[in-house]
From TrEMBL:
Species per Swiss-Prot/TrEMBL record: Agaribacter marinus
Name recorded for this polypeptide: Cytochrome oxidase Cu insertion factor, SCO1/SenC/PrrC family
Amino acid sequence: MKIKKHKLSIIMLVVVFVLPVVLAKVALDNSWFNEASTNRGRLLQPTIDAAPILKDTEKKWHFVYVLPESCEQDCENAIYAIGQVKAAVGREGERVDAVFLATESSDPNTVALLNSSSQLELLHKDISTVNKVFKDVDVNAIFIADTLNNIVLSYPSRSDKEQAIMDSRDMLADLRKLLKLSRIG
């Protein structure tokens, strides 16, 4: 009787400790649950290596925006949103830079306006370099690059002011989370 109880105890221990691990492995392999993500922007997989365009910048988190040929409402909203989010980051603001990429075909009035601002960084790059970096991605968006110059998130640039404000809230939430989790930059 005692041997039977001992065997039953061992079997129960194995069931209690091994069965959950086996079930978790089977659930992961068969995608039995929804994989949740907490980011609000579009996570870029794989990330974009932006070293060719950001190599001369400080080791910080960056908002990256490519200035279009004509700066319409969506462009103006993107510039405004980036400035507002950068200001809203607060004391972590020294860890974040806003980088605007100007090419030969960028709107000259917008380039002149951004050139006069001390809060925003304007980089002049060849259009071929910009196209090489963003070869598979639409550049009509706001991007977040990490401290290693990898673009990890994107947000669409919107012509509707209200939607642009909502997107800027999403950018702020994601950036705060990234800054909290990162000790670099």
